[in-house]
């Protein structure tokens, strides 16, 4: 059965993402991707001029995915009960595209477009965290001055951005384990909520705990 060019392109992206996530982007060559897919290098080059083009296409998909998540959060009324589910979706998106974060220094040194793209993602995360903290403060659920709320939002972004590299240092050999993946996501959510919890009112802390237990 002859595969359409679009399907071949998607197969290249899907398998490249898997290989980058498993082995790290620097350790995967175009020849290895083609060999794994059992297609000729020429077929792969028909769709992508080089590995950088594959990385760029994958990052654009990640950017669209996480951007849609942040946009949806900005449009909705912020409820304390929704914070943990939103953070879980955020970390799951990061996990699906974890090669970006596990090899972040190397990638940024070689891909200018990723540098600019990641900077934009971090800014959007900061906007979302700031919106969350301000909304909770205005609702009387967060006891913090504007300066404290801004610092809290920044700390949440720092943890969200640096969590995966931290996990990779402690569990590099377990990154392919599904149980480790689930634990990594949940630990990330827990750490961000741990930053938020001390600033909440007593009622807010109870509601957050109840939502987590549900």
TrEMBL record:
<dbReference type="GO" id="GO:0003700">
    <property type="term" value="F:DNA-binding transcription factor activity"/>
</dbReference>
<dbReference type="InterPro" id="IPR001647">
    <property type="entry name" value="HTH_TetR"/>
</dbReference>
<feature type="DNA-binding region" description="H-T-H motif">
    <location>
        <begin position="29"/>
        <end position="48"/>
    </location>
</feature>
<keyword id="KW-0238">DNA-binding</keyword>
<protein>
    <submittedName>
        <fullName>TetR/AcrR family transcriptional regulator</fullName>
    </submittedName>
</protein>
<dbReference type="Pfam" id="PF00440">
    <property type="entry name" value="TetR_N"/>
</dbReference>
<feature type="domain" description="HTH tetR-type">
    <location>
        <begin position="6"/>
        <end position="66"/>
    </location>
</feature>
<dbReference type="InterPro" id="IPR009057">
    <property type="entry name" value="Homeodomain-like_sf"/>
</dbReference>
<dbReference type="InterPro" id="IPR025722">
    <property type="entry name" value="TetR"/>
</dbReference>
<dbReference type="Pfam" id="PF13972">
    <property type="entry name" value="TetR"/>
</dbReference>
<dbReference type="GO" id="GO:0000976">
    <property type="term" value="F:transcription cis-regulatory region binding"/>
</dbReference>
<dbReference type="InterPro" id="IPR050109">
    <property type="entry name" value="HTH-type_TetR-like_transc_reg"/>
</dbReference>
């Amino acid at each position: 059965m002859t595969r359409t060019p679009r399907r071949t392109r998607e197969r290249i992206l899907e398998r490249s993402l898997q290989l980058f996530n498993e082995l790290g982007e620097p350790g995967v060559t175009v020849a290895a991707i083609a060999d794994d897919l059992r297609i000729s290098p020429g077929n792969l080059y028909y769709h992508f001029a080089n590995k950088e083009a594959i990385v760029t296409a994958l990052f654009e998909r990640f950017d669209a995915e996480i951007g849609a998540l942040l946009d949806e959060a900005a449009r909705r009324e912020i409820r304390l009960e929704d914070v943990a589910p939103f953070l879980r979706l955020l970390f799951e998106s990061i996990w699906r595209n974890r090669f970006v974060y596990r090899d972040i220094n190397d990638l940024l040194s070689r891909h200018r477009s990723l540098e600019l793209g990641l900077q934009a993602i971090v800014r959007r995360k900061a906007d979302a965290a700031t919106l969350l903290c301000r909304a909770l403060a205005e609702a009387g659920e967060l006891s913090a001055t504007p300066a404290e709320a801004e610092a809290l939002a920044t700390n949440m972004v720092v943890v969200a951005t640096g969590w995966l590299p931290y996990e990779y240092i402690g569990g590099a050999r377990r990154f392919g384990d599904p149980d480790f993946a689930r634990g990594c996501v949940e630990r990330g959510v827990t750490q961000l909520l741990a930053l938020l919890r001390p600033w909440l009112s007593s009622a807010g802390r109870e509601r957050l705990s109840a939502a987590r237990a549900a």
